[in-house]
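Problem: given the chain below (874 residues), write out its structure.
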Amino acid sequence: MPATRPTEGTHRSTAEVIAKARQLHQQALEVGHSGRYTREGRLLRRALALLDTVGPTDDVDWVKARTRILITLAFAEAESATLARGISLLAELRPSVEALTDEHAKAELGAAIDGNHAGMLIRSGRYEESIPLLDSAIAHNERHIELGPQDRVRLMDSMIASLANRGQAYLEMGRIEQAFVNLNMAITIGMDNDLPMRVAYIRHALGDLHLRTGDIPEALHYYQQAERDYLELGPFMLPRLRIDQSQALISAGLADEVAKNLDDVLPQMQLERVQQDLAEAELMRATAALMEDNLSLGRKLANSARRRFKRRGSDAWAAVAALVGLRVDTALAWRGARIPASLPARASQLADELTSVRLMDEAAIARTLAARLEVRRGNLSEASALLGPLSRPGSLTSIEQRMLLRLTRAELAAALGNRRQAFAQARAGLTDLGRARDRMGGLELVSATAIHGQELGDLAVRLVLDGGDKAATARRMFGWLEQTRAQMYRYEPVSGIEDQQLVELIAEIRNLGYALRQAKLDGRPTAKLRSRYAERQRAAMRLGWHAASRWGKPRPVADVVEVLAHLGSKALVSFAVSGGSLLAVVLAQGRVRLVRLGSAAKASENAMRLHADLNAMAPDHLPEPLFEAISASARKHAAALDAQLLRPLTGLTGELVIIPTGALYAVPWGALDSLRSRPVVVAPSATAWLAASRGSFPDGHTALVRGPGLTAAIGEIDKLAAHYDKATLLAGSDATSSRVLEALDGAALVHIAAHGEHEADNALFSRLELVDGALFAHELARLRKPPRQVVLAACELALNRIRPGDEALGFAGALLAGGVGTVVAAASRVGDLPAAGAMDDYHRALGAGASPAVALAEAVSADPLRRPFVCLGS
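Solution.
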């Protein structure tokens, strides 16, 4: 039957069908963004079937609509089925597009096919293969620009996508300069052409770039900007963003934040079945579990991720998942009596597999793990052979990889008897870690980074201990302890930091907290307020990682000579743990000595039991028999601590500076008989103590603050004012967060009687309750002149939150890190009457000219178990 010329009516029918097919295509795209690929596929096939009712035809619009629908179907197949299936569908399209005579359509569709093909490869870790395709896509777009596009917005969108993907591919290949060039070109085009979703995506990519270069705060800054845009424009991108944010947090050592970040989105991702994103999220969560020592969960998730990658045909990603699984199995084997021969062999095999897919950094990690396992097995020549070919870490090598390599080389040197080389590797590794820490932003990031150096620091301490107990060993031990502990206190605080967005967010959280407190008092429902409060707090926490949180330059680590010189007649005791043993480095009377103190577990148990007893006996009106039973237990544990920690340290006179470790931060030292009536200062490190002792502090005003809800006893700040010639009183409606911050700025002394609370999940949200809501530790960075001394009279806010590396956090920690010279706070709960008595005695002595440590020693000695206050800082 001869072909007939289409009638005008048929033309209208074709246009209507194309419009309807495009509508179905748009619906499919929206469904696909949520990962519902089965539903997306049904919509796409309906659109194709609809087009087939009026085709095949040479109508350009029909060809363009059909080709774009098939491109989307190919991408969906690559995501939900296999990469090979998606690529084969694209390959089937190329001949028909090449045959087009319409140059506009040919350029437009050629760019779309090549760009999507490259995107599939990038998603599967095949970055180098994607570059020629992206070059081709960009060339098609440039040709289309020359022709004069009929739809400029769509063309610019396509150009931005190709430039951004090429930047992403270059980034993954370690070609940072090319990545910067492409991403900056893309974001400029996006802004010039008012394409906000593309701009958001490129901000996301710039976050990836800064993550790769080690600038974690800047990466988190870009991720936060992208998140703000995604929430408004494209929530379907949030799971992908959570994965990349989590990678940044892993680099910063915040495994607990990664766990919360991903546990929130993994269930939804499992429902949506976005296989690549789900597998990457599982892999990141497995890494966090490994860092948190939850090895069973780490193994389960790493294996699940590897299976998903394999099903997709993402061999490179599957090898990365296998590497995380290997790290989990290595950690498990490390606890056993011996390392099976199969494990280093598996690591070496995996290194070869990773090399074959051009993942050179990951291959180096696998080979380093194989070497470390061989060192543990005693096969030192095999370990040397494995480490020998490894190149020096490059500028983009992650801190985790650097530390593993340094640790393995140090362990090999130690096993070979080359202590000098072992120490050199440990020192170089901690220097690497210091450089990474120097680039961090807020207190949370700085403190969390310590986890990466924990094993290297432990090795150095063990090597020092092998040198015996002579003076030279003690001096070396002191130096290593100062290099490995409480590093966040080394940084000079930068005063007056104020980010308006963060200030507004904190104010919102304060108002929500106040509303929540009132709702509880009134017996009203609180679920919505709690949810909003938690959501806003997490938003502020993420913002605080990069906003208004830069620290100054790091101070040099204190050495023995300068500490001894500054101590004078005082003594300093720095506690540490190596293996299961507790030890102390004692600096006194110009000498340094090392004292071994027995079981660390025993000391920790007595410290925590004493802490629990003091909490239990804090209420003012306990029944006498109960009070006697608890106080007897407390005295027993205090005596045990005294016998283990202090009595072996003979010859100590004068004021004592104590550097605790772990659970010893919870000890109220004045409760130990050897220290009764003796001035004691607790500091996170000798470096921090020295900095606080040498600090220049204002000779400003005295302020006495009373928060809401206090009993008459602890709230009697008028009585305390009698000890001073002039003091500013803030109580009732005057005790607001803004007035208290103002009082803190430039003060010589601020006494705060207010309820307070540690925030275990985020130390910077530890708070004091004031009349208008909470004053958060976050806000202390706004102080231009940190006060000389702060007294926290009515709450347990001493240094009780301890991260790896003895990074002591909390409200008191934020004060000290922010430049306050001395903080007086309770190490455990304290009753109102004992607190009031202690504070009256303390201020009387202080007003008479005693130093804080002397005044507190006198005040605490009247009732040591019921007045568990400590003097922190200097």
